[in-house]
Every structure is written in C-alpha cells, then in structure tokens.
Amino acid sequence: MGSRSKQPRRITMLATFIEWLEDYTRWEGVTGLVQGVLGVLGFGGLLSVLFGDSGIRAGILVGAMLGVLGLMAILFARQSRMGRELELMRKTVRRCYSMLDRHTLPDWRITSWRHVIRVQQNGDTIETISLTGIVEGDQVESFVFWSGAGWHWPRRHQRRFQVTARTAMRGDQGGTRPDLVHFWISDNAVASAIHLPRSLRHGDEASFDISVFWPAKCLPLARGGSVEEFARSFANPLPNLRYSVVLPAGLAVCYEAIGLEPGGVEHELATGIDDDGRVVVTLAARDVPAGHRVGMRLDPAPEPTRARAIPGSC
Predict the structure, then answer these.
(1) Cα–Cα distance between 189 and 193 in angstroms, integer?
(2) CA 117, 100, 86: angle at the middle one, nearest 5?
(3) Half-sphere exposure of 55 (CA within 13 A, CB side)
(4) pTM of the full predicted structure?
(5) Using CA atoms in the order 215, 218, 220, 226, what is the torsion angle rounded to 10 degrees?
(6) Which DSSP helix (H) or strand (E) runs through 179?
(7) 10 Å Cβ neighbour count for 130?
(8) DSSP 13-77
C-alpha cells in the first residue's frame, strides 16, 4: 500500500491575524493594542458622521471586534502559559525543600514553642505561634516550618490559606514583617519559609510571632463527628512546649495525651474555660526529646457527657 503524504498545516486568515497581533502586543504591550482599537473606533465614528455611510460603520465595527477577540485570545494564552510555568516552579520548590529536609542537619534549635489554635464554629482555625530558636548552622538565612490538616482536607481551600510572621518585640524594637512564602508539599500539608532580613550565625537567637488562618482545617471536629489529633515533633530537644486548643462554643471533648506516658516526659494536660466560655485544652511539656511526637487527641464527647457541669472532659 502506498504511503499517504502528510498534508501541510492549513493556515487560516484568523490564525495569521492573531499571530501578527501577538507580535504587535509583544512590542507595544496590551495598552498599545487597546489604544489602537479605541483609535480605530474614534476614526470610524468620525467618518460615519462625515459621510453617513453604514458600510464604513460596519467595517469599523468588524475591525474592532477582531481586535477585541484577538486581545482575549492573547490574554488567555498568556495566562495558561504562566499557570503552567508557575506550577512547574512550585513542583521544583517542593522537591528542593523535600531534599533539604531529608539530607541536611537542622539549622535551628527551638528553645520555646507556644502554640494556640482557636477552632471556629465552621471549622476554620486561627492559630498563633510564638517561638524562640538558636541558630545551629554556620550561616542561616531562613526559618522553615511545616504544618498539616489531619484529614482529607479539600484542596479548593488552599487559596484562602494565610500565614504571616513578625519578629518578636524586644523593648521598643521588633514587630517587623520579614519576607515569607508558603508552598503546598501535599494536598493537606504546607511548608512556610521565613526569609530573614540578614544572615544569622551560629549561636544567634531569634524569635517570631506567627499567625495562621487555615479554612476548614478542623471541620470534622467542629461538627462533633471525628477524632482530631494535635501533635508536633522537633528536630532537636525542646525545653519548653505549650500547646492549647480553644474549642467552638458548646463543644465538649474527651481527651488524652499523645506520646506522653506517666514517668516519662514531664507534662500536664488539662482543660479550662476562657473569657468567652469556650473550652480550652492545654498541654504543657518540658524537655521533649528530639524527633518525639507529642500532643493531644480530642474526641467530641457523647451527648450525655456534654450535659455535665464540667465541659471539656469525660
């Protein structure tokens, strides 16, 4: 059987026009194209007033419509290309930080970590972290921390996630915001990197106040239908840990410690009531070993238990 020759790609007039339009906007910019379209419309309006010819008006209108359609096509193509490039950059950054996490020694030794998670009625969380760390590396320019949701958190909420940081106040100084970026290492886990305004050397100390808004992070717990774990581990021994979870109004829980046994790490796990009448479960621990996961497990209490006089415990 004879082979069929490859047909040459058919080039249409519209494709040629859009290609020319893209070259034009590359040099003149989108503003130049918009100015050109407005100029054509204005000139066409003047001619139609002078000569009253409907054909002139129709021709000018068709030209303006082609210009607008071409502009929309160019903007859509650029947006798609930029989206693909941005996703590629995100994947590259995720791989780089994952390699650094696995193959490098810890650059920081955290000496104090105070973490408060306020769970809202709709499952959103407002978190505040106050930490102090000492530089272990020779020269450090950033501080990276990880956090995640404990369930199959919907990816669509990622765009609403917010994290900010400030340097801790020391007398009259501090409270400034260093550069901070975050990137998703999985659908429900995020890494945030604080880029320091100047490099720190071995033995230097730094403190940060971090605020995190995480939409629907604790939605199953807020609805009263799922167990939630709040736990962390640290690369170096942690002298001082304080971890508090403020529950939605009206929610009582059963609770138990994670990674903490009697006679082991010195700790205290207790409940209380804040000024708004909400249950607060607080874990305080000292000298937590490196790599040891500690925290608390909270389980919405059964209905009869919720009616007890002391909320927050079983």
Answers:
(1) 14
(2) 80
(3) 0
(4) 0.69
(5) 170
(6) strand 179-186
(7) 15
(8) HHHHHHHHHHHHHHHHHHHHHHHHHHHHHHHHHHHHHHH--HHHHHHHHHHHHHHHHHHHHHHHH
The DSSP bridge partners found for residue 147 are 190
**Alpha-carbon torsion, ordered 76, 77, 80, 83, to 10 deg:** -100
Q: Are the beta carbons of 163 and 263 closer than 8 angstroms?
A: no
Which one, of 265, 257, 255, lies nearest residue 291 by Cα? 265
60 or 144: which carries more pLDDT confidence?
144
Instruction: Enumerate domains of the chain plus CATH numbers.
Output: 13-101 (no CATH), 105-306 (2.60.40.3140)
Selection from 172, 166, 185 nearest residue 96 by Cα? 185
What is the three-state SS of 274-305? CCCCCEEEEEEEEEECCCCCEEEEEEECCHHH
Q: Strands 205-214 and 253-258, how do they pair?
A: unpaired
Whole-number average pLDDT of the chain: 78
CA gap 312, 314 in Å, rounded: 7
Query: Which of 95-104, 119-128, 221-230, 270-279 is predicted least confidently?
Result: 95-104
Neighbour tally for 150: CB within 10 Å = 16
pLDDT exceeds 80 at position 85: no
Please tell me the distance from the alpha carbon of residue 219 to that of residue 125, in angstroms, as a whole number.
9
Terminal-to-terminal C-alpha distance of the chain: 82
> 205-214 and 279-288 as β-strands: parallel, antiparallel, unpaired?
unpaired
Cα distances from 49 to residues 42, 57, 61, 63, 135, in angstroms, run 11, 10, 14, 18, 76
